Amino acid sequence: MREFSKEEIDSVLDLAQSLEPMARGKKSNILAGKILALLFFEPSTRTRMSFETAMKRLGGGVINLGPAEGSSISKGESLADTVRVIGGYADALVIRHPKEGSARLASQFSPVPVLNAGDGAGHHPTQTLLDLYTIRKESRLENLHIALVGDLKYGRTVHSLAYALSLYGADITLVSPPTLRMPDPIKADLSSKGTIVRETSDLGEVIDNVDVLYMTRIQRERFPDPVEYQKVASSYRITPESLASSQDNLIIMHPLPRVDEISPSVDETAHARYFQQSFYGVPVRMALLKMLIGGD
Amino acid sequence: MAELPAAGRVNEQMDRSKDEPGGLRVKPINNGTVIDHIAGGQALNVLKILGISGTTGATVSVVMNVESKKLGKKDIVKVEDRELREEELDRIALIAPAASINIIRNCKVIEKRPVDLPDEIVGVVRCQNPNCISNTHEPIKSRMLVKGKNPVSLRCLYCEQPLTERIADYLI
Q1: Tell me, which fold does domain B120-170 have in CATH?
Q2: Among A3, A18, A140, A160, which has the minimal tally of Cβ within 10 Å of its Cβ?
């Protein structure tokens, strides 16, 4: 995401906006005759299905790598060879792979454009773009005060999102347990771009002052002591009660899947936006596909 | 910047330690490359970067941990009858940014210059991230972007993991 300029991001979001009616079912044949290959070397539900939906909503077709077992990959084929071969069958590739940097490698060997749908603990740029789209649509991107909450050390989505928000002059508060704080080099990078970055462990301290609460899952396996995990997990749980004195226009986002971070009773409040956020993955991915293989 | 002997002068003086009278430790070479002002203890890593091992056939002299006003302790490497290419030599700046290069012909220094890291280092340093795609069996060489030269700061082109410390430990 660091290679994207603000203008490039805005042009993706603008196009996504114009494609939203098609994402909701209005007929389109913009990508008729085009084929998208999905190469998911790791399980995925939302990302894989929303790419597939995006391509089909635009009139295109999809081919799937399928499970790695029994395929050429299980016979030891390199990723470089796999993308060269499948790149010959399709007009674009979407790749999710457990190794960091795999999407960049794929782009070096593929004869057609490659979209990164998550590379290990590295990047997940389409998630960041759909997050930005959600914020722009449901709140505002300029002069935003956002709290990023949860696992800020390992969570790849929050790193990319923080970088992207720094382009829009956001005021960012990082809320996490001390052991899961955002890595120092990323914070230093953000500050060097003029972004105001604050850090706290206390969610209650910020909940009433922000425009967006961006929740992430704290994974149990990050804590050797289960008691410590329970303590931390419960202190980062959003309930209707904890939102009692929040701003009326506060929105709550989550990349999903959630576990305990957001009580289901929050779903009915005016603050919840995580299901809309998930849907916005479709128009954003439609925009990317149209830009890459739409031919104009 | 290191104070280098003027071009054209006999290269003998590079072997002398000014603090040790008569400190001529290795005889001057007639032709080849002398790498001076290597940080003390890094000479063997310099050879590793240059791909020079005992089987490459070159006559190589290594002087380690001699007194240096500038560095405290320094190493010197001499490779006889081989003028190393600029792009090979510049990689040395990864671990010895103060190093100076002297090309010797007929006992004279015909060229001398500091080392300067290129913008990208290919196939020399592996990424420290064990989960990086460049550390697998893929048909690629490691590629490190140079983000800073003093101190040296690298970033893997593939996974973007930075590498700023103990770079010598990651030489391929």
Answers
A1: SH3 type barrels. (2.30.30)
A2: A3
> Do A136 and A219 have their domain in common?
yes
Tell me the mean pLDDT in the region A217-225: 79
In this structure, the answer to whether residues A154 and A103 fall within a common structural domain is no
Residues of A in contact with B162 (CB under 8 A): 185
Q: Residue A39 above 50 pLDDT?
A: yes
Min distance B38 CA to chain A CA atoms (Å): 30
**DSSP annotation string for chain A:** -TT--HHHHHHHHHHHHHHHHHHTT----TTTT-EEEEEESS--SHHHHHHHHHHHHTT-EEEE---STTSTTTTT--HHHHHHHHTTT-SEEEEEESSBTHHHHHHHH-SS-EEEEEETTS--HHHHHHHHHHHHHHS-STT-EEEEES-TTT-HHHHHHHHHHHTTT-EEEEE--GGGPPPHHHHHHHHHTT-EEEEES-GGGTTTT-SEEEE-PPPGGG-SSHHHHHHHHHHT-B-TGGGTTS-TT-EEE--S--SSSB-GGGGGSTTB-HHHHHHHHHHHHHHHHHHHHS--
Q: According to the model, what pLDDT value does residue B7 have?
A: 47
The pLDDT score that the predictor gives to residue B8 is 47
Please tell me the number of Cα atoms within 13 Å of A39 on its side-chain side: 31
Task: Determine the structural domain holding residue A22 and report its residue range.
Answer: 6-123+281-293
Whether B161 and chain A come into contact, CB under 8 Å, resolves to yes
Best to test chain B binding among A78, A102, A156 (most B CBs inside 10 Å): A102
User: Are residues B160 and A101, on separate chains, in Cβ contact within 8 Å?
Assistant: yes
Global pTM reads 0.85
CATH code for position A191: 3.40.50.1370
| Residue to substitute from B127, B128, B133, B134, interface A, most A β-carbons within 10 A | B133
Residue contacts between A and B (CB atoms, under 8 Å)? 53
- B55 touching A (Cβ < 8 Å): no
* B138 contact residues in A (CB cutoff 8 A): 78-80, 105
